[in-house]
Amino acid sequence: MDTPIEKMTDEEKIEELRKITELEKEQRARKLLLVRSAFPETRGKPQVRGRLKVVTEASGWTREHVANIRDGKVTE
Q1: How far apart are CA 35 and CA 57, in angstroms?
Q2: Would you tell me which of 7, 11, 51, 61 could form a disulfide with 65, CB atoms 3.0–4.6 Å apart?
Q3: Which long-range contacts (CB under 8 A, 24 or more apart) does 48-52 make?
Q4: Residues whose CB is less than 8 angstroms from the CB of residue 20 and which lie 6 or more positions away in sequence, other chains included
Q5: For residue 1, what pLDDT is reported?
Q6: Largest Cα–Cα distance of the chain, in whole Å?
Q7: CA distances from 1 to 19, 20, 25, 34, 39 (A)
């Protein structure tokens, strides 16, 4: 992945795209798990005031999307 793009063949570029796409899928799955687990209420504990705002900022996703993940409406 460290080869300058201008020195790569088209096949190498396509293969790197495939690898990056797979890594993104893995990272997204982990990010979803982290977001959901950052809310204590998903573990049967009391809610923490302001947690949605903090998790939204940390994730870079919208408030609505993070809330949907927290509520189990988004799983992948």
Answers
A1: 11
A2: 61
A3: none
A4: none
A5: 60
A6: 55
A7: 9, 9, 18, 27, 36
